[in-house]
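Students often ask why inverse folding is considered easier than folding. One informal answer: many sequences map to the same fold, so there is more than one right answer. In these notes we will look at a single instance of the problem. The structure comes first.
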């Protein structure tokens, strides 16, 4: 990497009356944290690696049904078989996200898959559904020799799908001479519902949920929640579906991504209570308990205890170490978090979401070379993925290399479906001070784009207001900012404890020049989510306060906060990783501080690497 600096191009004495204008684009990146926070580490690969004999990957099943909608059903059957195998302690089972990339219906190089996933065996299959009849074909293959170890075709009624899945898992275990405990036998034999349509909806929900992890798209979580709701409507006694519904609502509550945030928390609690009443000892119920404790209650200690209980029930799954890694990171226990994520990656080595976790956490710790290598691994799995490319661009931005960042953002435009990629593009235009292009792009997006949530639209409107002001259109900027303020105040009245909304409202007040209101709301936002409660996201609200202090001339206080933040690993809502000396030098929002020797020192200091992160290759 050869960082490119543009400090000499900055105005030496910026006008204080214009500084708050530069804050605009900060609001346009409020959701970067939602995209970047929560992803981590990578496994080491060696050419001499020998796959354990009892290691296995369940590859996506091919949908042979005439109805393409049954593809989700086929994905769900594969997912259930994988889950059943993950319950068997004597097997090493690769996680679903790593397996999902090997699409069905095309020729697959099993030897290559064996090497990439570190497994000796793979399961392939197909699903054909016609009315209430079901045909499932499955085979176990030694991927190193292409020798079939077991295979069977099942022609049965749809109601027998549970028995089919259970039998496939048992036959695979027997073929690999894996030992099953009595508890594992009992878990495999369980029949979650007697309602075929409810189970169909549940499998479709599983398919969308699995893709949401693989593609890290929140819209898929909403769709998954809808199918789980359908499942429990059809069968109110469907305990595992209630558990999955609770999880979906809990993560939507945690991420604050829609206007129904408060209701999501209540819905997660209600669904969990149903699951606990129906299936209190079910693994999925205990997982739902752990996620509710983490995502809704933010009781990290209690959540860790719950996930610890589940770990013995899902010995072959990456889910528990992943969850523990995320939780310990929120606590600020970075070393412990790294260890948990390394366990998760070992079980799910080509999981793009886990690699994103690795890269983003490396970025939080300002280990940028490691972060770039990890994003390269993600792009190897999902070539040209806009989210991964934008994330990589944000690392170059943090290093001050805008020229290199621009190469990864050239295809991002007003119609880009990825909000995170669009946000990084707007950050790039801000750092380049190309406000005219930013305004044109924001206008086009407001007019043409279908926003997934009101939050996204409000954020872009706020960005537009500031950029209009920056370009000298004070009348247009005032009208846009007023609309944003009205909307945000209404949302905050409904959700008074929503720190994400409060932060945006403080930005809106700052854009309108309302100093007292902006500072008051920004200070309150810190109390809503202090760093002691969330080591990953809490400090970003301190950064927001520093920005508003800068806007209104409280330079000394802002510099004190920035000094502390430069020594803190966290996820910046402004930059997608964390603040750096290079970003302080480049970003116009800090222009009013440039004449202060203390700020100049921050810009010149070499950024310390807070902790070394293990990285492959």
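Output (designed amino acids):
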């Amino acid at each position: 990497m050869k960082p490119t600096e543009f400090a000499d191009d900055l105005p030496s004495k910026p006008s204080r009356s214009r500084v708050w204008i530069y804050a605009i684009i900060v609001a346009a990146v409020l959701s970067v944290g939602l995209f970047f926070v929560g992803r981590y580490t990578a496994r080491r690969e060696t050419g001499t690696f020998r796959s354990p004999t009892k290691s296995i990957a369940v590859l996506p099943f091919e949908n042979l049904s005439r109805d393409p909608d049954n593809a989700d059903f086929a994905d769900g059957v594969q997912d259930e078989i994988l889950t059943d195998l993950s319950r068997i302690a004597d097997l090493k089972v690769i996680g679903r996200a790593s397996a999902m990339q090997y699409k069905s219906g095309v020729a697959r190089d099993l030897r290559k898959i064996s090497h990439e996933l570190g497994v000796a065996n793979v399961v392939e299959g197909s699903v054909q559904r016609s009315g209430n009849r079901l045909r499932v074909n499955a085979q176990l293959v030694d991927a190193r020799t292409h020798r079939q170890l077991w295979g069977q075709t099942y022609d049965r009624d749809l109601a027998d799908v549970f028995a089919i899945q259970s039998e496939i898992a048992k036959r695979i275990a027997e073929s690999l001479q894996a030992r099953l405990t009595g508890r594992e036998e009992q878990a495999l034999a369980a029949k979650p519902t007697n309602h075929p349509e409810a189970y169909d909806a549940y499998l479709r929900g599983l398919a969308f949920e699995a893709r949401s992890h693989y593609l890290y798209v929140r819209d898929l979580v909403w769709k998954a929640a809808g199918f789980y709701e359908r499942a429990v409507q059809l069968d109110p006694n469907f305990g595992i579906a209630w558990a999955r519904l609770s999880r979906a609502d809990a993560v939507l509550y945690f991420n604050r991504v829609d206007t129904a945030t408060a209701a999501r928390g209540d819905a997660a609690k209600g669904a969990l209570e149903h699951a606990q009443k129906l299936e209190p000892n079910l693994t999925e119920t205990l997982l739902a308990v752990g996620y509710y404790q983490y995502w809704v209650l933010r009781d990290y200690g209690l959540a860790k205890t719950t996930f610890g209980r589940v770990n013995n029930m899902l010995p072959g799954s990456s889910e528990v170490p992943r969850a523990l890694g995320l939780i310990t990171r929120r606590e600020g226990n970075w070393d412990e978090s790294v260890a948990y994520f390394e366990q998760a990656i070992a079980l799910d080595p080509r999981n793009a979401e886990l690699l994103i976790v690795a890269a983003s956490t490396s970025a939080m710790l300002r280990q940028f070379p490691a972060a770039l290598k990890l994003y390269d691994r993600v792009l190897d799995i999902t070539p040209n993925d806009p989210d991964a490319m934008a994330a990589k661009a944000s690392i170059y931005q943090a290093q001050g290399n805008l020229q290199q960042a621009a190469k990864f953002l050239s295809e991002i435009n007003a119609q880009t479906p990825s909000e995170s990629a669009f946000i990084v593009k707007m950050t790039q235009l801000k750092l380049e001070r190309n406000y005219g292009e930013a305004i044109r792009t924001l206008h086009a997006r407001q007019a043409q784009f279908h926003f997934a949530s009101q939050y996204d639209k409000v954020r872009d409107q706020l960005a537009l207001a500031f950029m209009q002001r920056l370009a000298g259109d004070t009348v247009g900027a005032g009208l846009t900012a007023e609309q944003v303020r009205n909307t945000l105040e209404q949302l905050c009245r409904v959700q008074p404890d929503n720190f994400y909304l409060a932060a945006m409202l403080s930005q809106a007040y700052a854009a309108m020049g309302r100093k007292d209101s902006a500072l008051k709301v920004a200070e309150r936002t810190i109390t809503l989510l202090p760093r002691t409660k969330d080591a990953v996201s809490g400090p970003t609200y301190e950064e927001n306060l520093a920005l508003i202090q800068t806007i209104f001339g409280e330079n000394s206080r802002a510099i004190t906060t920035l000094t502390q933040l430069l020594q803190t690993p966290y996820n910046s809502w402004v930059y997608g990783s964390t603040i750096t000396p290079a970003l302080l030098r480049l970003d116009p929002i800090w222009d009013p501080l440039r004449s202060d020797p203390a700020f100049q020192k921050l810009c010149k200091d070499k950024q310390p690497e807070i902790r070394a992160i293990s990285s492959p290759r």
